[in-house]
Amino acid sequence: MKLSLHALTIALSFLAFSAFAEPGENTYKQVCAACHASGVLNAPKLGDKAKWAPLIAEGQVTLTAHGYVGVRGMPAKGGNPNLTVEGFSDAVAYMVNKAGGNWKTPDAKTLAAINKEIEARKASLNKKP
Ligand code: HEC
User: Fold this and answer.
1) pLDDT tens-digit profile of 57-68?
2) Most CB atoms closer than 10 Å: which of 18, 31, 32, 36?
3) How far is 123 from 117, CA to CA, in rounded Å?
4) What is the pLDDT of residues 5-19, one digit of tens each?
């Protein structure tokens, strides 16, 4: 009895760790945490509500698109050239939600708007003043 309860506990905690990871959590840990956990180059830290509040106010489309293209010390795609817009969006939402926001995995319409804003942002950055 004792043994099987123990096994059950292990099985449950394994499930909690794998199946119930929040969207974006794994990408955050693998790609973003290197800077956003400790605030490297002044990156807004995970859970720092004061730093994230003005970013959250930009809205999901703008913030996700501009982050994906790269902003100052923030490298494009978080520095991972294989990271998709979908994967990046979830990682942004994960950090936003840890700082008091309530963003979801973007639906098709929001994703289309993010992709459009990515193209607009790239075009405006390529323009010489
Ligand atoms: C090499 C370090 C580094 C990595 C890795 C990194 N970031 Fe950043 N990030 C930064 C820095 C630095 C800033 C602050 C940029 C500034 O405002 O000067 C930033 C800012 C941001 C912002 C706010 C952008 C804005 O418009 O001000 C978002 C969103 C963001 N990061 C998301 C992510 C996500 C999602 C990942 C992982 C997929 C990630 N970052 C990985 C360094 C990093």
Assistant:
1) 999 999 999 999
2) 32
3) 10
4) 666 666 655 555 556
54 lines ligand 1 (CB under 6 A): no
Q: Which residue has the tokens 């708007």?
A: 113
pTM: predicted TM-score of the whole model, two decimal places: 0.88
- Ligand 1 pocket test: pick from 31, 35, 42 the residue with the most ligand atoms within 8 Å of its Cβ: 35
Task: Enter the tokens of residue 60.
Answer: 């999901």
Q: Where are the domains of the chain?
A: 23-126
Cβ 90 vs Cβ 97: under 8 Å: no
101 lines ligand 1 (CB under 6 A): no
**What does the chain come to in residues?**
129
Residue bearing tokens 């520095």 = 79
Architecture of domain 23-126: Orthogonal Bundle (1.10)
